TrEMBL record:
Lineage of source species: Eukaryota, Fungi, Fungi incertae sedis, Mucoromycota, Glomeromycotina
ABC transporter domain residues: 72-319
Membrane topology: Multi-pass membrane protein
Listed transmembrane segments: none
Protein name as catalogued: 37058_t:CDS:1
Keywords on record: ATP-binding, Membrane, Nucleotide-binding, Transmembrane, Transmembrane helix, Transport
Pfam families: ABC2_membrane_7, ABC_tran
Location within or outside the cell: Membrane
Provenance organism: Gigaspora margarita
Main location: membrane
InterPro entries: AAA+_ATPase, ABC_transporter-like_ATP-bd, ABC_transporter-like_CS, ABCG_dom, ABCG_transporters, P-loop_NTPase
SMART domains attached to this UniProt entry: AAA
Amino acid sequence: MESAFSKSDQDKKIKDSLSFSSVNDINDEIQIEFDEKSIKRAEFMQSKAHISTFKEYPVYVEFYGINYSIPVHQQNVHGKQIDEEIGDNTRKLIIQNIHGFARPGEILAIMGPSGCGKTTLLNVLADRVGTKNIEGTIKMNGNKPTKDSRRFIAYCTQEDVFFPYLTVKETLSYTSRLRLPREMPTSAKLEQVENIIQILNLSKCSNTIIGNMRIRGISGGEKKRVSIANELLTDPSVILLDEPTSGLDSSLALELVQTLKELARKQQKTIIIVIHQPSSQVFELFDKLLLMADGHVVYFGDSADTVDYLANEGFICHPNFNPADYMLELLNNPTTKQKLISTYAKSIQSDSSGKLVVEKCFKRPTIPDDSRIIGSSKHKWEATFIQQLTILTERSFKQRSKAVLSKLNFIQILGIALINCLIWFRMPYTEASLTDRYGLSDKSSSSCDHGETLNNE
């Protein structure tokens, strides 16, 4: 009896050891896969340093006292304007006294609940809203941004706009041929496209059309990664990203932010990212954090110190709780949100613009001839006029060929031509038939326009 029990115990131990070893094998395979991806990312960063427009000096971004307002439109009540109550110069503040800085080699994350002004701030930093409604100071390496400096700023928006009939590889190839330096050979540009496709996990969909709402193509997460790849190809000094992880699962979001982190660290890129609700692993990759609520600053500083800052204010985050989720939970509560806004405003009461905070924490090394760093490149356009004409013509033909040269379009044109010939057959060449000929041309053009609309749908 005892031998039977001992034998069963031995069998159980053998099964447990086998299952444990299989789990270890799976973990080893996963670790090897992550190591291979890390090696590929490292090779990609190294290759970009040699064949791209890598800058000799990095770019330091600082901003303080940023206010953005919009005019309040006049309202009508029963057909009568109420200008006396509203006033002619009433404006609504979207963001107020926003301040912060971003160093090369670091990631500045802008977080906050929906509608707090994160995207507005990013648009202001990217100079996409003009200067009419903006107050405050924005500096790059100690100088105000110019039109030439915008060439070294990449901006990935939330909404992706691409040609739906082009594949992922074609889209990136045309971008590289148009925007990369003309000194680079075409083979090096296409090699760069292949590298970034592998790094951002776009190999499976590289030959798939992008598509749109009516045409099936790549997924929303893949389209977001194509948007990021489209900007990273140009090797910008400052990279602004608006919700880059939206539409991605937690694993791909982590891998994407890790890629951005390595890009910032190894090539001294300045990265400012707007993110809504990152995972705890993604949150740990951020160097600086700008927390916003209702257009105000709630916290700015090291992301690692955020939990301690909230604990000092009486809001203790549990050890196993995601700090990003806890912050959004606090800022979605009107009482705690107002308390955090008031507390931070009192801490910088001596200088509401935040200039002293930036000057105290932000130390930019002395670099000779700062204006040269944010200066213009050798050429106004990287591609010559002939190259632009050739590339854009080729791209337009590829985009429209599938619709224009489709079987449906051929049948439609032949049908319209046959109907018009039957109606206006043997029309006499007299003055009385001029209006009939005019009707023929008008009918033909309207029929072609209607057919083009059907093809687009």
